[in-house]
UniProtKB/TrEMBL annotation:
Lineage, highest ranks first: Eukaryota, Fungi, Dikarya, Ascomycota, Pezizomycotina
Span list, region Disordered: 24-46
Name of the protein in its database record: Apple domain-containing protein
UniProt biased composition (Low complexity): 24-43
């Protein structure tokens, strides 16, 4: 009888421990996530910096239905299969997202300092992601599937 009681207590303890662990994981999911895909911030008011904005989702000012996820320190270049749509001067990453959103064929855009100018490189195809220092890249979440860096 003593063995049965010990086994019952052990089973209850394991069940309670698993329940508490699962409960903590469930509650912390949405609150601890850095993915703001459910409530994208407008580029009109956004201050986009890395690493603070990594994986955050932003909606374009003039095209709020277009949602973009930010990737810090990464790029998609032609050597790895990306296709450039166009490039333009942009003073901020938010402005770069807005430029991409204005182009129907744009699936993502990279932004950063390019020989002393802040340029936005819009892409019609992404290819393979690569590491690129201080570069910022935004992917259209409805037109592309990119794994987190």
């Amino acid at each position: 009888m003593g063995v049965a009681i010990v086994l019952a207590v052990a089973a209850i303890a394991v069940g309670v421990g698993a329940g508490l662990a699962f409960g903590r994981r469930s509650r912390s999911g949405p609150d601890s996530s850095s993915d703001n895909s459910t409530t994208p911030e407008s580029t009109k008011t956004a201050t986009i910096t890395c690493p603070a904005s990594e994986n955050a989702t932003f909606s374009a000012q003039d095209a709020p239905a277009r949602r973009f996820r930010l990737l810090c320190g990464h790029d998609f270049n032609s050597e790895d299969g990306a296709i450039d749509l166009s490039s333009a001067n942009a003073t901020t990453m938010a402005a770069c997202i807005d430029l991409c959103a204005a182009e129907a064929g744009c699936v993502g855009a990279g932004w950063g300092d390019y020989y002393g100018s802040h340029l936005c490189w819009m892409k019609s195809r992404l290819g393979e992601m690569n590491v690129s220092g201080n570069w910022l890249f935004a992917v259209d979440v409805d037109k592309t599937t990119v794994k987190s860096a």
